[in-house]
Amino acid sequence: MVGRVLIVAGSDSGGGAGIQADIKSVSALGAFASTAITALTAQNTEGVHGVMPVPVEFIDQQINVVMNDIGADCVKTGMLHDAPVIETVVAALKRDAPETPLVVDPVMVAKGGAPLLQDEAVTTLRDKLLPCATLLTPNVPEAEALVGRTLQGEDDMEALSRSLFDLGPDAVLLKGGHMDGAVVRDMLITESGIRVYENPRIDTVHTHGTGCTLASSIAAGIAKGEEIEHAVERAEAFLHTAIQTAPGLGRGHGPVNHLHTVQRS
Fold this sequence. Notes:
Blueprint: E1 4-12, H1 18-28, E2 32-44, E3 47-53, H2 56-69, E4 74-77, H3 83-96, E5 102-104, H4 122-129, E6 135-136, H5 140-147, H6 157-165, E7 172-174, E8 183-190, E9 193-200, H7 210-223, H8 228-244
């Protein structure tokens, strides 16, 4: 099974995050990537220097024509920068992909600190998109913004995850990369229970696009028929190696190595 993933997200001109990271990840894991681009960014490893929104009518058209021809076995959303975009995407997916699994990466802030989601759109994201999600993949700052409280240390991860779960997604993967410690712990909560994925922390600045990469890698697994737990496990391993083998590009937060699965020695 090839697996088809429709990616609804913004473009990163630097190639490390956004649509570019998504396409590379999905392709490297043996699935087929199609796209609906929500915004163009002028971006490199040092930050976001400009954003050009795509009209909502054209976002809707991209989703519609892809789904009516190619179809999708999983949809992954990334940068949806304002409330009208979120509302458009929700309506389009309910119309064209009502039974298709949905991985939601709630992109709010770029690695360099630039906001990628308007403050007033957080409520729209929480109330309209999250209840449609098969899997929600927030980092700690995104999770805190969605539930309106601060994480009180590692022992509070389960409670914060359950608060996110109560917002309506079928599953939540709370990523612990922003926390301190030699081990990075990501917590998956589903109706069947909790699973923690642990990876040694890699001391590097080359982590641009890790959230996009992980979410799209999970989407590739789901599109190929994997259960969420296995798709997450495979994606975690893929991302860890991608960080370990990062090419070291740029003067800031560089990209990871999305193509390590297909590179020849």
